[in-house]
């Protein structure tokens, strides 16, 4: 059997790759591994289980709950709650584990199962590997009073909303906000958090039917939000993804504000408030050079990681940093959350608009984005990308030519015979020129 866990839990086409049988087996194995790491030895372990609104989440939730309860775990069923809300409630309820059933920004037919350890923490690789090893192993099934009990935690969502609203000191009266809930898990929590803080809220794509999650909406399709903000005369808009761990913003003119700009705004806010640990922000190698220049101008340091929020989180933990994220809008504010939280991000951005008296367009202007060009070169020997002397010489020459005004990055794909060539430069034409040249060198030197 190949590795089941990917970079963010177990995902696949629901009822084909991710079946009810697999969900039961995974939950039993997770109960054994995480229960033993928690309170299993001296009391019945507990778990919280939540999902996004996609249709397949209904039968997968039933399978997960059945697997956990059959293994002797008491289950608090949360219903439709964002991934970060599940993490928060795992910690709040002192549960031994949390389970989120969601495929995030993926299309509706996909789904996923993400396990969380005590405190709402993402699992380390070795814990995921331990769960995989215990799949379908023989085990002693509890009976009678020793099987797990299942109940619904109706107050969970309210507690999460209270946490979001309590994370800022500012009130949001006078601010008109449009929220694109992606017909996903943010549909109740995000509007309620903003209304609690006094904002005028218009929610769009907030009528999930189990089939329309992420469909032409949310952070992967912000066009409707951009139009709505302008047409409604709103001050700002925020777009979430299906499980609401990402957030992108839209200013009053309908311009998109991406994760790099959001990171810079939040970094300067945290620096001013004395909350930015070690004056450092963590982002991936794909973050725009404009972010690095903006942070440098403010006397802050940028630490870059491999692509993926798990690598951002690992670097934050290792260095004791409190802010990190990706261009996609997956922002981790570890003072307030153990994972990326789209609504939390949006609340803090709106609060900064209020306390500074500046519109989102002005706040976002701290980052001057350099043109960024990405070329995927297929059918090449990616294993030689880091060692081929001709290619490395051309990269060095291009890097020297761009100097402090640009950047070159070559990344072999993790799953395909593809090398990704990314170039940033002062102008789009120069970025295209350098990227096309390096792509040609990759094709020639790494040909199969």
From TrEMBL:
InterPro entries found in the cross-reference section: A-D-PHexomutase_a/b/a-I, A-D-PHexomutase_a/b/a-I/II/III, A-D-PHexomutase_a/b/a-II, A-D-PHexomutase_a/b/a-III, A-D-PHexomutase_C, A-D-PHexomutase_C_sf, A-D-PHexomutase_CS, Alpha-D-phosphohexomutase_SF
Catalytic reaction(s) noted: alpha-D-glucosamine 1-phosphate = D-glucosamine 6-phosphate
EC number: 5.4.2.10
GO terms of biological process kind: carbohydrate metabolic process; peptidoglycan biosynthetic process; UDP-N-acetylglucosamine biosynthetic process
SUPFAM superfamilies referenced in this protein's UniProt entry, alphabetically: Phosphoglucomutase, C-terminal domain, Phosphoglucomutase, first 3 domains
Post-translational modification, as annotated: Activated by phosphorylation.
Comment on bound cofactor: Binds 1 Mg(2+) ion per subunit.
Gene Ontology cellular-component terms listed: cytosol
GO molecular function (one): phosphoglucosamine mutase activity
Record PANTHER family: PHOSPHOGLUCOMUTASE (ALPHA-D-GLUCOSE-1,6-BISPHOSPHATE-DEPENDENT) (PTHR42946:SF1), PHOSPHOHEXOSE MUTASE (PTHR42946)
Protein name (database record): Phosphoglucosamine mutase
Organism: Aeromicrobium camelliae
Gene from which the chain derives: glmM
């Amino acid at each position: 059997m190949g590795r089941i866990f990917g970079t963010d839990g177990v995902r696949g086409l629901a009822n084909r790759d991710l079946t009810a049988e697999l969900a039961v087996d995974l939950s039993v194995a997770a109960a054994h591994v995480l229960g033993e790491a928690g309170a299993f030895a001296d009391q019945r372990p507990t778990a919280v289980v939540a999902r996004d609104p996609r249709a397949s989440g209904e039968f997968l939730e039933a399978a997960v709950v059945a697997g956990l309860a059959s293994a002797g775990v008491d289950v608090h069923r949360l219903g439709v709650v964002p991934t970060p809300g599940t993490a928060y409630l795992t910690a709040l309820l002192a549960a031994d584990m949390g389970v989120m059933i969601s495929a995030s920004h993926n299309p509706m037919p996909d789904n996923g199962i993400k396990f969380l350890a005590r405190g709402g923490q993402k699992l380390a690789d070795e814990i995921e590997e331990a769960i995989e090893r215990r799949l379908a192993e023989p085990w002693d099934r509890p009976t009678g009073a020793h099987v797990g009990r299942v109940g619904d935690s109706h107050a969970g969502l309210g507690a999460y909303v209270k946490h979001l609203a309590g994370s800022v000191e500012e009130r949001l009266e006078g601010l008109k906000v449009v929220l694109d809930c992606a017909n996903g898990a943010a549909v109740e929590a995000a509007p309620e958090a903003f209304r609690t803080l006094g904002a005028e809220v218009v929610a769009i794509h907030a009528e999930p039917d189990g089939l329309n999650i992420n469909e032409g909406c949310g952070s992967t399709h912000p066009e409707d939000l951009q139009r709505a903000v302008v047409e409604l005369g709103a001050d700002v808009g925020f777009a979430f993804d299906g499980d609401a761990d990402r957030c992108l913003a839209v200013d009053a003119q309908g311009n998109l504000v991406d994760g790099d700009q959001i990171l810079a705004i939040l970094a300067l806010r945290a620096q001013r408030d004395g909350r930015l640990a070690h004056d450092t922000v963590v982002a991936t190698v794909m973050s725009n050079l404009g972010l690095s220049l903006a942070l440098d101008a403010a006397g802050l340091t940028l630490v870059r990681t491999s692509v993926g929020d798990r690598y951002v989180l690992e670097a934050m933990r290792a260095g004791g940093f409190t802010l990190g994220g990706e261009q996609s809008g997956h922002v981790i504010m570890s003072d307030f959350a153990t994972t990326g939280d789209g609504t939390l991000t949006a609340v803090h951005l709106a609060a900064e608009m209020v306390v500074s008296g500046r519109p989102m367009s002005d706040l976002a202007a701290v980052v001057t984005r350099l043109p960024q060009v990405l070329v995927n070169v297929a059918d090449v020997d990616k294993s030689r990308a880091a060692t081929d002397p001709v290619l490395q010489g051309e990269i060095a020459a291009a890097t020297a030519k761009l100097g402090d005004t640009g950047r070159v990055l070559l990344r072999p794909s993790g799953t395909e015979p593809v090398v990704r060539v990314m170039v940033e430069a002062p102008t789009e034409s120069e970025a295209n020129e350098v990227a096309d040249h390096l792509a040609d060198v990759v094709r020639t030197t790494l040909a199969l």
